[in-house]
Amino acid sequence: MPLLDHLREFRKRIVRSVSAILLAALIGWFFYNEIIAKLAEPVCDLALAQRTGSDTCGSLYISGVLGPLNLQIKVALLTGLIIAAPYWLYQLWAFIAPALHRKEKRNSVFFFVAATPFFAAGTFLGYAILPLAIKVLFGFTPDALNNLVKFDDYLDFVMRTILVFGLAFELPVFLVTFNLIGFLSGVTILRPWRIWVFCIVLFVAGFSPSADPLSMILLAIPLIILYLLSGVFALWNDKRRAKKEIPLD
Questions:
Q1: More confident residue, 89 or 49
Q2: Average pLDDT over the chain, rounded to an integer
Q3: What does the DSSP assignment read for the chain?
Q4: Other CB atoms closer than 10 Å to residue 247's CB: what's the count?
Q5: Region 11-34 average pLDDT
Q6: When you count CB atoms within 10 A of the terminal residue's CB, does the N or C end of the chain come out lower?
Q7: Where on the phi/psi map is residue 182: left (φ > 0), alpha (ψ -120 to 50), or beta?
């Protein structure tokens, strides 16, 4: 396919993905109060504050005339990005698939099947560690001071945590898919394991939403384990493939 056709195909996939995210964002828009209460749980019980008519909720606050609107838009887009994950992950696979042979396409279906649950598992882990990470970070506040957190900044922190964990958990899916289509062997994956571990730690340090060692360790350890498991699976798959290719006398 010529370069311009590739660009047109890429644009088509991007437009479809963005459209799906915007449509799914409507769910986040209409269920804004329920979602925002769930996201605020690590810092305060927003649902209780709303029921009791409290003027404050922990250390969170919103400022500015456009602050509440910007917050609702961010929550809606985050919701749309997560809900529409199966579709935009499929669009990513569909953009790559035309370059594959028929057998490679059949094997690469694993990417579409596994990408969504792995992304969901990563986002769930990211949300699950939020209370612990926030508790650690708030622990650095001096006793004589109050830590007031702008809700926009807090939401950015939550979004980065959830999305970074979700995307990071796609690593084993890519490795196994590349092995299934014959692009990477198990030896190629596992031989430079020291470089892989270093790169994983570097990625976690660079893209982790917080600088505390605890949240970085909680992301780095599962990624390293998933990388090693992917390599072991690739070795097994290579041996299985080699046995099939041995001619029978």
A1: 89
A2: 79
A3: --HHHHHHHHHHHHHHHHHHHHHHHHHHHHTHHHHHHHHHTTT--HHHHHHHT-S-BTTEE--SSSHHHHHHHHHHHHHHHHHTHHHHHHHHHHHHGGGS-HHHHHHHHHHHHHHHHHHHHHHHHHHHTHHHHHHHHHTTS-TTS---EEHHHHHHHHHHHHHHHHHHTTHHHHHHHHHHTTSS-HHHHHTTHHHHHHHHHHHHHHH-SS--HHHHHHHHHHHHHHHHHHHHHHHHHHHHHHHHHSPP-
A4: 4
A5: 89
A6: C
A7: left
* Of 9, 39, 37, 29, residue with least CA distance to 154: 39
| Nearest to 220, CA basis, from 201, 241, 244, 206 | 201
Tallying the residues shown for the chain, one arrives at 249
Range from 56-70, 77-91, 165-179, 183-197 carrying the lowest mean pLDDT: 56-70
Please report the sign of the dihedral spanned by the C-alpha atoms of residue 69, residue 71, residue 77, residue 83.
Answer: negative
Segment 99-123 shows an average pLDDT of 71
